[in-house]
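Researcher: Here's a chain I'd like modeled. Treat it as a single chain, no partners, no ligands.
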Amino acid sequence: MKIKRQTKILELIKEHKIETQSDLLEMLRRNGFAVTQATVSRDIKELRLVKVLDADGTYQYAAESVSPMQEESHFYLFSTAVVSVDYAHCLVVIKTRSGMAQAVCAALDSTSRMGVLGSIAGDDTIFVATRTDSVSAALVSDIKKLMSQKNNSF
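Model: Modeled as a single isolated chain. Structure tokens:
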């Protein structure tokens, strides 16, 4: 139920201008979710929703975005540290240079990809659990694109 609710929250904030937790609570209730203010508050925190300034000068909820500076550092990190990536069903395995797995894993976690259930990193290997095979395939494809643009000035 939590995943369905949080998925609906992400849909709602993309489709509607939602300014307050109360607005979000009401929209969820109209969509069949029996939730409390505390639940909505926890969901906002877990989904890393932020309030952004709209063109008309009001604030509304949005999914946290990665700044251009973070995108650039993530690109560099993935293009230089990742050695290989593959998947089997709902498990993605990312191999990195020795000692780089935790940094790559933290960068991956900060992107908040839909369908990613969690990740764990060792010294040079990351396991990522996904909800479906298609999420795994998309993640592998995205990482391979970054790998193909390697900056060999490491």
